[in-house]
Each structure stands twice: as structure tokens, then as C-alpha cells.
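pls design
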């Protein structure tokens, strides 16, 4: 059994986090994570729900569905 999100969840993520929107990191469980509060632009949402972001600090670490969180700020 896998824990991948259902297709309707992926579609909802793509609508909530469209390419080009600005997000702010709320929480990321990764030792290489940008600091909480870092902002960046969404570059893609993939088929497993990862929100790929080009962070303002230069990082491109993705926000993993069900593990990390970010919010739209612009």
C-alpha cells in the first residue's frame, strides 16, 4: 500500500499553489531546510504532491506533501 495522495488531492494542490505564486515556509522536516518564514516562488507541483519552490535564499528544496507545509502569501 502506498501513501501517495489521490489524483483529486494533486489537482487541489495545483490549484492552491499555481506556478509563479509566492509561498512562505511554515515547517519543513529536513536538516537542509530553509529557515521558517523564507519565501519563494512555486515552480511546479508534481504527481506525488511535492510543491517545488525556488526559495529566495537560493534553495530549491521541495515541500513534501503530508510532511512539510507552506502557505500562499502572494
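designed seq:
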Amino acid at each position: 500500500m502506498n501513501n501517495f495522495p489521490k489524483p483529486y488531492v494533486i489537482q487541489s494542490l495545483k490549484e492552491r499553489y499555481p506556478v509563479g505564486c509566492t509561498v512562505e515556509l511554515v515547517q519543513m522536516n529536513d536538516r537542509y531546510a530553509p529557515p521558517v518564514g523564507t519565501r519563494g516562488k512555486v515552480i511546479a507541483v508534481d504527481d506525488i504532491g511535492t510543491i517545488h519552490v525556488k526559495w529566495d535564499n537560493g534553495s530549491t528544496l521541495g515541500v513534501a506533501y503530508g510532511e512539510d507545509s507552506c502557505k500562499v502569501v502572494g
